[in-house]
Design the sequence.
């Protein structure tokens, strides 16, 4: 969907696609780290070396783990995550009060270096008892903690989010493909950014509009967000830190620890959303990682 007709190598994608200003705004130390990382990674880049794997098989979510706030891992409260019409649908028709029952659907296997593709659309009526900020809001969590390490009343997983937003019909821009950081920090423009969410340069997409989102995740070094073929955000050094997450196990939240790998999870926070494709291609891990 909206992908360019040519297929540049991953290295050219990292270095030549926008936003290129990020690289120039780095401090000398971080710029050197980026250059060294890119050069060391370049000889191993073979775009077609690994096949695409469909994490969602179009039929069921047997390979996925549900974790919803106030419920143990494995309990799909209210049939929140369901497969219908060949899609993973997030719905709330069996809820009463939302009661902060934020949920996530985790693929069973953690990943470290990979290229992720997700086709989604934000749809339907927002559950009014959910928090207002969640209107037309969803996302996919990356480098997430194992859902089985979350306490029953932990609201969010420690993770990095590729956030999905749809416009609010008020004419104001509301870019999708942003970054949010529950229980984490990232380096952006050369320093750890104190904001919970960093806005991307993406366009605003309407309710019910299908969007093709991608993330290129290079372990604990760099993450790139791509929306409908355009690079819209890039940041570095994902690590445990920050706030937002509540009722977590202190033994898990070790602030300052770099996130080299983790689980991928689809989000539920009060807004219906459909996912028709979730696919991944693993990338080679540089020597020494």
Sequence:
């Amino acid at each position: 969907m909206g992908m360019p007709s040519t297929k540049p190598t991953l290295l050219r994608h990292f270095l030549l696609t926008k936003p290129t200003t990020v690289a120039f705004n780095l401090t000398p130390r971080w710029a050197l780290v980026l250059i060294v990382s890119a050069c060391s990674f370049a000889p191993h880049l073979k775009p077609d070396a690994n096949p695409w794997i469909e994490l969602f098989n179009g039929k069921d979510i047997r390979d996925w783990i549900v974790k919803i706030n106030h419920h143990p891992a494995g309990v799909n409260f209210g049939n929140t995550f369901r497969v219908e019409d060949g899609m993973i649908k997030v719905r709330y028709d069996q809820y009463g009060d939302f009661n902060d029952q934020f949920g996530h659907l985790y693929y069973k296997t953690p990943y470290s270096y990979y290229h992720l593709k997700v086709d989604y659309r934000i749809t339907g009526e927002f559950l009014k008892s959910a928090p207002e900020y969640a209107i037309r809001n969803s996302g996919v969590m990356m480098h997430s903690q194992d859902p089985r390490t979350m306490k029953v009343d932990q609201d969010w997983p420690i993770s990095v989010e590729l956030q999905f937003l749809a416009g609010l019909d008020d004419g104001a821009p509301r870019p999708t493909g942003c970054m949010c950081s529950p229980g984490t920090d990232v380096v952006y423009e050369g320093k750890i950014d104190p904001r919970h969410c960093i806005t991307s340069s993406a366009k605003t997409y309407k309710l019910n509009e299908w969007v093709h989102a991608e993330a290129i995740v290079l372990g604990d070094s760099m993450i790139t967000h791509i929306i409908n073929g355009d690079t819209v955000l890039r940041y570095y050094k994902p690590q445990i830190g920050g706030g937002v997450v509540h009722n977590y196990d202190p033994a898990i939240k070790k602030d300052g620890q770099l996130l080299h790998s983790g689980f991928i999870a689809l989000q539920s926070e009060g807004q219906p959303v459909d996912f028709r494709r979730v696919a991944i291609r693993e990338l080679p891990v540089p020597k020494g990682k």
Notes: The mean pLDDT is 88. The two ends are 33 Å apart (CA to CA).
